[in-house]
Amino acid sequence: MIPQIVIDALKLAAPSWRPILMQGLEAMVEADPEYLQTLAADNFLPTQGRIFAAFSQPIEAVRYVLVGEGPYPREASATGVCFMDGAVQSLWSEQGLSKQVNRATSLRNFMKMLLVAEGLVQPDSTGVEAMAVISAKARAIGSPFNQTLPQLEAKLIEQGFFLLNAALVFRAHVPPVKEAKAWRPLFQVVMHALAAHAQQCNQDLPTLVLWGKIALWLEALEGIDAFPKLVSEHPYNLSFIQNSSMQQFFAPMRLLYC
């Protein structure tokens, strides 16, 4: 049985994903009949029926599958979309990146990586002074920079990013690795659907962008070797800022700009 609260959450998914997600949920029940029932009776993030919010990106629009670890462990922040912190609006402040961005460690390091990729700051100079200089330019009248996180998210969606977490929910008392394991059957169905859609439409397979150790379990899924793939540490690591493969991958997309 699939709990009603989970079925209701499918409303935020694009129509092209809903039958695929139902198939994935059925696969989850077959693998572990108790998991979804237990989840439905528990407190989890994201709230407001946003478990499948990332699936608002229609399957036909997917060019990149970016997989992080799990939702932010704060209700205001967990949106159901990978590293899109719901508590963040403005990206900039007089001091540099906004207070809300700096609190969202993964987002902060992602922003700094983009700034390095664009040549706006040096890899070894992403501290307060460098950020203040960039912020002044970003906030100037007529600036071409995105001003808010929703604008940055829209730019990612426009580029064809499917912003997933390896675990679609967060519970404080459940290890993220265990939570992610329960969602593997659904991810297997999702990856098969992406491969089938690409074949049917005579398109290239989307590129997988795997962030962190938990996301790496996708490599064990059936058929995953056919997908082009980029792997890096999770953005909550400071080393992500200087990751040259991520810089080279994201630089041509000009995500910082409107």
Question: Could you explain the architecture of this structure?
Answer:
With 258 residues, this protein is an alpha/beta fold. The chain has one domain (4-89, 147-253): Uracil-DNA Glycosylase, subunit E. 37% of the residues lie in helices and 9% in strands. It has helices at 4-8, 18-31, 35-40, 99-103, 105-117, 128-139, 149-158, 176-182, 184-200, 244-250, and strands at residues 64-68, 92-93, 96-97, 161-165, 207-211, 229-232. The strands form two sheets. The protein has a four-stranded parallel sheet. The protein has a two-stranded antiparallel ribbon with strand order 2-3. Strand 2 and strand 3 form a beta hairpin. Helix 2 runs antiparallel to helix 9 and helix 5 (105-117) packs across helix 10 (244-250). The longest helix has 17 residues, at 184-200. It starts with a helix and ends in an 8-residue tail after the last helix.
